[in-house]
Amino acid sequence: MGRRTAVWKAATWGAVAGTLPDLDVVIDHGDALLNMVLHRAESHALFWLTLFAPLMAWVVSRIHRDAHLFRRWWLSLWLVLITHPLLDAMTIYGTQLLLPFTNHPYGVGSMFIIDPAYTLPLIVGVVAALRMKDATRGLRWNAVGLVVSTAYLAWSALAQAHVEQQARDSLREQGVAAERVLVTPAPFQTLLWRVVALPDDASDPRFLEAYVSLLDGARPLRFATHTRGAELMAAHGQAAPVARLAAFTGGFVKLSTTSDGQLRITDLRMGQEPDYVFNFDLGPLSAVGSVPATQVSERPPVGPALRWIGQRMWGQDVAPPWQGAVKPSAG
């Protein structure tokens, strides 16, 4: 909006428009797994947000008696609305950008959902624009913050591509055929990356996990090997909730049984072995999906985990404290 309207008005309505897509979290689909896969759906679709933008702009321009600025409000609010899901798509969660044409969940995965290096430049820029008496100078600070944060997004994608190539080369050297390789940053930064690989052989019960720091130098990748529950997948892979989450995650799931005999499905993309944010209990093995899925989140102790990230991101060769020693895969 520049200096066409008061900075506080632009900041306020930018905050409102930036929040609106995430209000879909208040919708309860009656099932924890459905709530997950249907988040970032219609409210994050570029098509629907583009249709909504002129309506919101009309309301805002009338509230502030800025009818002559309708087109400018339209453009500004449209940019806010569509950059919300585009930024979400930089994370690994899965954002259904192209509804109603396809429900494919897009997820670049080069950004963690919270990263101070991305957020702080934006905060500094907005605060400067709101607080500086010289509006032109404040808006320049705001522009610099936007440029820096956007450059950080580009950096994250380049770093991810570098680590993915390194991981694929390492897997080939170890004789592991794995077309599906997931590379995501560990929390709050983009120096330390988690790699998850699924062997191409559908009967192979393993998935492989490694951590790579950009400061590791020539140190070879070491993959820990874990089980995916191949027998359970063969028996229950066609059950609706299992198939739904497997499709949403691109196959990055594992199956296990709980102590009380329920089938549990785990999203391998968000977390680390053995702790994951999205675990879902799907009911007894004899009647999978007969009851609503319930979510069970597991996280490692925060203090030790953050200390480990701080050490590992700088290239120190230390194993995760919750996981024990990392052993090379057998290939």
Q: Could you write a compact summary of the structure shown?
A:
The longest helix is centred in the middle third of the chain and has 39 residues, at about 135-175.
Average residue pLDDT: 93
Shape: globular
β-strand number = 10
Which class of secondary structure composition applies to the elements? Answer: alpha+beta
N to C succession of SSEs: HHHHHHEEEEHHEEEEEEH
Largest sheet: 4 strands, antiparallel
Strand order of the largest sheet: 1-2-3-4
Low-confidence sequence ranges = 324-331
* Helix content class: 40-55%
Number of helices: 9
Instruction: Name the beta content range.
Output: 5-15%
Please report the distance between the alpha carbons of the first and last residues.
57 Å
Structural domains: how many = 2
Radius of gyration: 22 Å
Question: What would you note in describing this structure?
Answer:
The relative contact order is 0.10. The chain has nine helices and ten strands. The chain is globular and about 65 Å long. The chain folds into two domains: 7-156, no CATH class; 174-312, no CATH class. With 331 residues, it is an alpha+beta fold. Helix 1 packs across helix 4 (70-88), helix 3 packs antiparallel against helix 4 (70-88) and helix 5 runs antiparallel to helix 6. A hairpin with a 6-residue loop joins strand 1 and strand 2. The strands form three sheets. The chain has a four-stranded antiparallel beta sheet, covered by helices on one side. The chain has a four-stranded antiparallel beta sheet with strand order 5-6-9-10. It has helices at 7-19, 32-37, 46-63, 70-88, 116-131, 135-173, 230-236, 240-249, 302-312, and strands at residues 180-185, 192-198, 206-213, 224-227, 253-257, 262-267, 271-272, 275-276, 279-284, 294-296.
